[in-house]
Amino acid sequence: MKYTKEVLWIMAFTFLGEVLNALLPLPVPAGVYGMLLLLLALIIGVVKLPDIEGAGNILLDTMSIMFIPAAVGIMNAVDILKPVLLPYIVIIVVSTVLVMSVTGLVAQAVLRKRESTDSQKDELSEISLEPHETYGIGRRPLSPHGEMDGANGYADELRKKADAGTADTDHADGDASCQKG
């Protein structure tokens, strides 16, 4: 039942692409209209990725089989293609190399950007304050990851005061209990 719903979503957008192709006088294939509408629906949130992911993956896995009829059709038109075969091969090779190069460069740029963002986050998470830097009215020390850590430093100071006899043990316990809350 899940795949049925997914296929119906894809077919609905394919149908909408056919309608747009019939209504608009632009030289855009109906499949492109359908894909753009589906992309827009995914971006807006009308359709969620899990709603079409399974059927879409099956279609992508079997896409090479879908080109067999077109290849057979080209083989039937070899006589027509002979005069332009060399320019077609050059166009196919150049465009393939160009698309692969641009895709690789864009992917590298995205990965570099993501790595630099992750490294900046890692550097910030390693920053920590020394206990003597965190004392003050209403200030509490932070752990290396930036979380509140009431025991870090305060417990040592309370122990020092208790050992020196300058602090009341009830007062020290009260401060420690305040730190827990």
What is shown here, in short?
This protein has helices at residues 2-23, 30-44, 53-61, 63-66, 68-76, 78-81, 85-125, 154-164, 169-180. By secondary structure, the chain is mainly α.
Task: Name the features.
181 residues; mainly alpha; 9 helices
What features would you describe in this structure?
By secondary structure, the protein is mainly α. It contains nine helices and no strands. Helix 1 crosses helix 3 and helix 8 runs antiparallel to helix 9. It starts with a helix and ends with a helix. The C terminus is likely disordered.
Q: Uncertain segments of ≥5 residues (pLDDT<50)?
A: 141-152, 166-181
How do the helices and strands follow one another from N- to C-terminus? HHHHHHHHH
Helix coverage percent of residues? over 70%
Q: Tell me what portion of residues adopts beta-strand conformation.
A: under 5%
Largest sheet: none
Enumerate how many helices there are, as a single number.
Answer: 9
Tell me the distance between the termini.
Answer: 52 Å
* DSSP E strands, number: 0
Mean of residue pLDDT values: 78
- Radius of gyration, in Å, reads 33 Å
Structural class: mainly alpha
- Give the CA-based shape: elongated
